[in-house]
Amino acid sequence: MKITLPCVVGLTWVMKDTLGEVLDELEEPIEFMVGGQDLLAAVELALVDKQAGDRVELHLEPEQAFGDYDENRVFLQPRSIFPAELEEGMLYEGSALPAGAASDTPTDLMYTVTDIYPEHVVLDGNHPLAGIALRLSMRVASVRAATAEEIGAGTLGTGFFKLESAPDGGAGLLH
Q1: Which of 23, 59, 76, 137 is most solvent-facing, going by the fewest CB within 10 Å?
Q2: What is the 3-state secondary structure (H, E, C) of the chain?
Q3: Which residue, 172, 166, 152, 174, is CA-closest to 35?
Q4: How far apart are the C-alpha atoms of 52 and 102, rounded to whole Å?
Q5: What is the model's pTM?
Q6: Do strands 91-93 and 110-116 pair parallel, antiparallel, or not at all (unpaired)?
Q7: CA separation for the pair 122, 77 (Å, rounded)
Q8: Over the stretch 117-159, which tens digit does the pLDDT of each residue have?
Q9: Which residues have a Cβ under 8 Å from the Cβ of 21 and sit 6 or more positions away?
């Protein structure tokens, strides 16, 4: 079966930056919805008409991936509003920031704790891969028709480097 919209594909990949540093390696296939919300548009476009066993090499500029880095998405918050066990790399939804957060902080972003100082915490609302050109070497492991339920949902819940926070406010990068 060839990849068409909508369908479900199982992918493996190696993602590198332009200097060749490996940013992520997905050795076991994970299924994604093509024609939904799981993959970047440029990735979907490159996959159309491919089939199981095909390899796809892709170079994505920041605007095709996670956008340019925007320093206006970086905010300082009082250290005192966060738990003592706060660590760099933890994620917070803007709508779930602790009480006492600055009111000018947008609530529709996911924030990464990038620096912790005695008096303040630096929250970065940019995606961790913002501003980075990516080289993606993918292998199509499987292709199948999407179910009516999957089409209705528009996602399998395994978005391409989607950020999600855990109930305690901290989490990591998801494939």
Answers
A1: 59
A2: CECCCCEEEEEEEEEEECCCCEEEEEEEEEEEEECCCCCCHHHHHHHCCCECCCEEEEEECHHHCCCCCCHHHEEEEEHHHCCCCCCCCCEEEHHHCCCCCCCCCCCCCEEEEEEECCCEEEEECCCCCCCCCEEEEEEEEEEEECCHHHHHHCCCCCCCCCECCCCCCCCCECC
A3: 152
A4: 49
A5: 0.79
A6: antiparallel
A7: 7
A8: 999 999 999 998 999 999 999 999 999 999 999 999 999 987 7
A9: none
Residue 155, class by beta-carbon neighbours within 10 Å (0-12 exposed, 13-18 middle, 19+ buried)? middle
Residue range 97-107: average pLDDT? 92
Per CATH, the number for 71-124 is 2.40.10
Domain-by-domain residue ranges, the chain? 7-66+130-145, 71-124
As to burial, measured by CB atoms within 10 angstroms (0-12 exposed, 13-18 middle, 19+ buried), residue 98 is middle
- Each residue's pLDDT tens digit, 4-44: 999 999 999 999 999 999 999 999 999 999 999 999 999 99
- For residue 88, give every residue at least 6 positions away whose Cβ sits within 8 Å of its Cβ, in sequence order, or none: 113, 114, 115, 116
User: What is the domain class of 7-66+130-145 according to CATH?
Assistant: alpha beta
